[in-house]
Amino acid sequence: MEKKRRVITLLSIPSIWLLLFFVLPFTIMLLFSIRETTFSPIFPPTLSHYIEFLTTPVYLRLLLSSAWIAFVTAVITILLAYPLAYYLIFHGGKHRLALLSFLILPAWTSYLLRVLAWKVILGSNGIINTFLLSLGLIDEGMPIFLYSQSAVIITLVYVWIPYAALPIFSTLERIDIKLIEASQDLGASPLRTFLRVTLPLSTPGLVSAFFFVFIPSLGEWVTPSLVGGADGIMYGNLVQTQFLRGLNWPMGTVMSTVLLLIVSVFTMLFNRHVTMKEMSALA
What we know:
The protein has 283 residues and is mainly alpha-helical. The protein contains 13 helices and no strands. It has helices at 2-33, 48-55, 57-91, 96-103, 111-122, 127-135, 149-173, 177-185, 190-201, 203-218, 222-228, 235-245, 249-282. It is globular and about 75 Å long. The model has no long low-confidence stretch (mean pLDDT 85).
């Protein structure tokens, strides 16, 4: 009886937390999405906003464009973060944790300040334009990358590299060094050892890093607002506009619900991948 009571106590706290901060807000979102207008009563409910969303090409096109930006951001971030994590694990020695701390040090500063810093860097008087001017390649400063999808991707990659490096670092750290040594003893080259041993064993960290970057980037709105301009607008900016400027909360909640469903699908795929990896490892 005491054991049962202890289990109920342990489960009740997270259940209440989940109810208050996920189930309840999501229910409120769903109730708003079936309203005719922001201030109209819930009954009679309507699905007109869902129909409008699905039949408006601009909304779907912007969602696909944002998904593409998030995908490219995640891929580039992983390509840059993996060598960093690999170097820290296999060449960092006893100082690898200290070096990892330096890697995540920029994340301690304000997110807004980091984005604004890149706005200055990519601007007309930034480092890039100053360098090109010194080489004589351009006659006057111009915002080459600013206010574009490229600016959004560059800024997001910079922001997410430390966070992507952490799961990769953790996965590489758990690899048994004896497996790598055995591969080398059997005559495999360093490249073959990496492709056949290190890389497959670090796949869970790569998948984690991908979703860790892709999911928040998909709903990003601060970075596109500051460095994206008209060409770099993303899906999150449209949701913000519906809530704050248009005061169209039903449509805003519809867009948020669609985004939440997409993120949920990716999360389930990620959990399934991790579960299959664990089952294959146990087998």
